[in-house]
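Box 3.1. Reading complex inputs
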Amino acid sequence: MPELLIAGARIVDPFRGADEMADVLVARGRVAQVGKDIPREGREVVEASGLVLSPGFLELHAHLREPGGEDAETLETGLKAALRGGYTAVCCMPNTRPPLDNAAIASSIAARARALGLADLYVVGCVTRGREGRELAEMALMNVCEANVRAFSDDGGAMEDAGVMRLALQYASAFGGLIISHPEDTKLSRGGQINEGEVSTALGLRGIPASAEEVMVARDILLAEETGCRLHLAHLSTARSAAMVREAKARGVRVTAEVTPHHLTLNEKDMKGYDTSFKMNPPLRTAADVAALREALRDGTIDAVATDHAPHRREDKEREFDYAPFGVVGMESAFPVLYLELVESGEVTLMRLLEALTRGPAEVLGLSPQEYGGGVREGARADLVLLDLEEEWTMDATRFASRGRNCPFHGRKVKGRVVYTIKNGRVVHAHEGGRG
Amino acid sequence: MAERRHLLDIDDLDREGMERILETARSFAEVLRRPIKKVPSLRGRTVANLFYEPSTRTRLSFELAAKSLSADVLNFSASTSSVEKGESLKDTALTLEAMGVDAVVIRHPVAGAPWLLRRWIGATVLNAGDGMHAHPTQALLDLFTMRERLGDLEGKTIAFVGDILHSRVARSGVKACRAMGMEVLLVAPPTLMPPSPMPGVELITSLDEAIPRCDVIYMLRMQKERQQEGRVPSLEEYTRLYQLNVERMAGARPGALVMHPGPMNRGVEITAEVADAPYAAITSQVTAGVAVRMATLFTLLGGAEGGGDAG
């Protein structure tokens, strides 16, 4: 393989806090040199002047549906979608059929992903056997198997039993396992379709109150504090959730948190006419919640942006609102939506946004620089993404690599484009026509 | 007619639009008092009643309205149809469309189902009640009934009493009454109130406080499921606090009207004495229903002239 020269990019590297103009030479899958005027002769050249070069993104929260839901998404379509969205590594959630609750199935999924040679896959295992919330799954065996599972979640449903949650936090701490909580009190959210409030009242849909999330965030923070164990909170959606995480971090609780692009950019009033592409759990909240989540991303209360990529079959989404499943796809729309809404608007810096897509999730997961690129620097693995910040375009879900078309940003004007994704030093995604 | 017209919720109509339908309904009410209760206005047009929820009175009312206009009527109810074989709403809608129906009257337990229908098919869509969301022809027939009994509604006060939270009748009724310049009170225990106050309405938890202020007391059906959901401790306690009975009516204004969308739970939200009293307009509502639905179908389908492309 010839050496690859990325010429003239603006490097924005959250791992080093560097924002600089330089050439990057890639050889044997690694960054060989970062510097000015690296000679071009005999090298494949990517003309990158005017583009931003960032470490590849890491998706903390995706539902790739394999096994059992292959007509909604497969590892192959999901990981291709990841590369198109700039993600070079993806965590897949274990709410599959059957669920990823043991070492055998976790290893087989990890092996399938490796054979595909697309984005890296980190398998998230179940916390409890069968995702039933009763007995702990064999987390330590999943950790030591080939899949090297390091994070565990019963995501998609909540851990109803506080006692089981407490045991899980304690048990996983023995081998550094991370428990990811899907904070939802289903007794409070039961039957709910969208955020409870003005819009649910007007549309006659049952509401999901903010408290359905907040009481679980409070509970899990208290359990993490009492046990001293590490906790990650998935897809926060309310201002009070963010405030509780901020206070917990200030007290020294070992808690991290993620937020989705849709909760950062859409509110309950954005849904028009019972469009099930706006049906997700947790639901879109109020404009005040969106503002609070942006502040929490800015000040570091929220560690990572994760899309909660949840593809569904068109047959399942094209139904009466109450009958359609929750969830939206996110990996192919994340960057252009976030760039336009957060960075162009001046609310969040490009560095901070990229940090929340790269270093933030890597630290949540506890990945070493050997495992995950770890920045644009000599010796690091060349998992990189080139971004055009100028291109304005219209999001078109019909062109996604994902099988899911259930995207609330479909038809929306966005800005910023993932032009190239480079994995292990190879260009694995190039936007048609190269630079837009 | 350039584009198909629909009635999905009462706010598809402005006050003028409502007035026009009420006016048209008045002439149809006259037709319904004749020995031969039929006009040829919609001859050759087809109306499909698509009912996904058990309903006798609304379906019969729409069926009689369409037949009185000489339209052909197809009745499709979920329990006896291909829905039981797993057919989706979309396929059912496309099937009716392919058969060339001119209007679909839909009743569905899920809010928003009529909006899906409008997106999928070209026929006129008429919402006959969707989930907890909307019931526009009920709101129109209620206005019609109140007009007949009270005259001008501007400045009059109406209280909706009972399970407001789950009531599409109240949601559409509040909008219609507000549009006519009425004051609206919602009377219910807090667990049966909507989570967010509707614009321009007053929430009151005591029926006894509300009654003396009202020109119209509109009772809603109380379903047993609400007790099972824990929203009220028992139907007996609910009855004690929110039942409209003769004793409570003693506190009402002279000439105050009692209404109910039916079907009633006699002995729960309303006693037999009140339901059958002269100040109750409940059977007038049923009569008005046919005339108002005739007027609605007539207005939406543009009378006897061909409307849009025949399928």
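In summary: The interface with chain A takes residues 88-90, 108-113, 115-116, 119, 130-134, 168, 171, 194-196, 198 of chain B (CB under 8 Å).
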